[in-house]
Description:
It is built from eleven helices and ten strands. By secondary structure, it is of the alpha+beta class. The two termini are 54 Å apart.
Amino acid sequence: MRHWTIDAKQAPQNITADRQASGKKTTTQQTKVKWLIGLYAAIWCLGVGWFISIEPQQQREWMPEVSQKITYERDPNNPDLITLTNVRNFDWHTEDDATARWETRTIDMSKLSGVDVANSYWMGPLIAHTLVSFRFEDDRPLAFSFEIRKEQGESFSALAGFFRRYELSLIAAEERDIIYTRTNKRGEQVYLLPVSHLQQREVKSLFESYLTAADELNAKPAWYNTLTSNCTNIIFYMARLVSGDRLPWDYRIWVSGWLPNYLYDVGMLDTNSQLNEQQHGEQNWSMDTWYERTHINPKVRGFDNQSNLESGINSREFSTQIRQGIPIPPLADSQASAEAQAQSAAQASN
């Protein structure tokens, strides 16, 4: 365009007298423009080709908290019994210093009793890190988190996350590790929201989705992407495979800080059934009430995370404390019942 402008300014003023010279100049300027466009396109093609060719890696000098990959085995006599290896259970002393502990834990999927979503706000109201905790009838919860797999000395940048900078990692962890470090050491504001109107088959299918994701990442590493492959929308993609149209597409899937509002509007946050059972006599909570009651930082302020480490008592205590004052919904008996109750809750919220 610069060459075209120069040529245009130098063009003869008397077009009638200099038509032949002007025609030559026009041809020359068109050639220049085509050549520049071709060069520009070639450079872009080379850049895009180079960008696409960058492959994620399994072997780097990883930060300790993402250094291991979760694996699992099924009991050959009972496929519901899953033995998970490399479940993270770190003892956090500061936000950057922890005593590493990777454990093996066996869970029974037939005992799954519900799902909680934890949103951890670290950069204003629009951006949050999303974790999913699975509850069990007779055992402490187990949390899953999609995170960037940081290398030693590496820090997170949302902008860099668009450009194949960070590998994707799936962490399975005790809540006293992965939530405690956010509430008590990093100073992030965390909200724990129990998801209502789910059948056990849906909870089991979602758990299986995490196992499948672990298999895929172990077989072939993948890139984290700030927009398309982050901690929130990956969970949504998996949940839609389980629940289908009950979770409609919404812009808040990409604005992770507004995920609680999305769950509220689609009827997946509901206090009525549980509160009626407990005869509390309260109406369905507003979204403001949900944020107030599910804010867990005040509930675990001063929690002693170093006691009863070997017995696992503090893991149970931490998980119990963060659920104080939060109604835990029962599993739905049928799909028709779940959908009807969710629809009723959505109408009430709106």
